[in-house]
């Protein structure tokens, strides 16, 4: 009977030791699982942050493009108005210059004809 009692005591100690080990393994597993979940959450947050930054950059780029197009439109309008005003105020000068060019061309033609007839 003592022998059975010793065996039972030994088995009880072994069972207690194994139960303690099993509890330690469960705690380690839970700790690792918690750590993995935190890492996954961190990666998800990093992805969300990257997506938000990218969306912000796209919005800023669109705003910059719209601003540039508006400035370009304004510059073209100013340039067009300037060209019209210049032509309106200086059209007589332009006509005189064209007239002078035509006279020079006529003189060149006459002179070349004279040179041809003289030779």
UniProtKB/TrEMBL annotation:
**Residue intervals passing through the bilayer:** 93-117
Domain of life from the UniProt record: Eukaryota
Keywords for this protein: Membrane, Transmembrane, Transmembrane helix
Record carries keyword Cell inner membrane? no
Locate the coiled-coil region(s) and give their ranges. none
| UniProt keyword annotation of Lyase present | no
GO MF annotations for this entry? syntaxin binding
Q: Which family does it belong to?
A: Belongs to the taxilin family.
The name on file for this protein is Alpha-taxilin
Taxonomic source organism: Portunus trituberculatus (Swimming crab)
């Amino acid at each position: 009977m003592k022998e059975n009692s010793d065996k039972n005591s030994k088995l009880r100690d072994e069972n207690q030791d194994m139960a303690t080990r099993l509890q330690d393994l469960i705690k380690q597993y839970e700790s690792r699982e918690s750590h993995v979940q935190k890492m996954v959450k961190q990666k998800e947050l990093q992805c969300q942050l990257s997506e938000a930054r990218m969306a912000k950059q796209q919005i800023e780029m669109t705003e910059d493009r719209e601003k540039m197009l508006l400035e370009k439109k304004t510059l073209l309008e100013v340039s067009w108005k300037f060209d019209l005003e210049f032509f309106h105020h200086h059209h007589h000068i332009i006509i005189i210059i064209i007239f002078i060019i035509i006279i020079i061309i006529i003189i060149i033609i006459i002179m070349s004809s004279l040179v041809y007839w003289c030779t």
